[in-house]
Amino acid sequence: MPEFFKKLGYYTAHLGKFHHSPRKRFPYDFVHRDENTASKFIAGYREEKPLLLVVCTHPPHTPWVKNTTYDCSEIDLPPNFVDTRETRLDRANYYSDVTLMDSILGNVLRSLEKHGRKSCFDPILFAGRSLYLAAANPAARRPFIMVQRALERRDKVG
């Protein structure tokens, strides 16, 4: 991906989880392994080139962040899940991790807005891991979602 965007004149940055190797095959202009540096990076970005900013969060990924938000007894389980305390605890921990990921991405979007860059930003969400695919029936069931400014809003995905 970075080489494609570089050919189009973009500055390419990758923040967060980075499992690609060898590194020379993924020629980002800037790489930092902490997704929490995104706001700092955005604030300091001074290039005249358009920016490809890839932010790979560590969550949701096992081992889960310990749940402190969700009451296990109130979680709705998909019909194909076995209803046990362990299942509910695991699901609560997963939800907690997704909430953390959402918070990280929200911070990125707020930073883009704060520094006047949101109007030239098209968020793309990739899901490289589909841990709960069997439970995704009510969800979008898409490993890729893109929000593009120039497109008319539709009420459904697909």
Overview of the molecule:
The structure is a single chain. The chain is an alpha/beta fold. The protein is 27% helix and 13% strand. It has three helices and five strands, in the order H-E-E-H-E-H-E-E. It has helices at residues 2-7, 38-44, 85-114, and strands at 11-16, 30-32, 51-56, 124-126, 144-146. The strands form two sheets. The chain has a three-stranded parallel β-sheet with strand order 2-1-3. The longest helix has 30 residues, at 85-114. The relative contact order is 0.14.
Keyword list:
158 residues, 3-stranded parallel beta sheet, 13% strand, alpha/beta, 27% helix
Round the Cα radius of gyration to an integer and report it.
Answer: 18 Å
Main pleated sheet: 3 strands, parallel
Could you state the oligomeric state of the chains shown?
single chain
Side by side, the strands of the main sheet go 2-1-3
What ranges have pLDDT less than 50 throughout 5 or more consecutive residues? 132-136
Helix content: 25-40%
- Count of alpha and pi helical runs: 3
Order of helices and strands: HEEHEHEE
Number of strands: 5
Mean pLDDT score: 77
What portion of the residues fall into strands of 2 or more residues? Answer: 5-15%
What general form does the structure show? elongated
Kindly, what is the distance between the CA atoms of the first and last residues, rounded to a whole number of angstroms? 23 Å
- Which structural class do the helices and strands define? alpha/beta
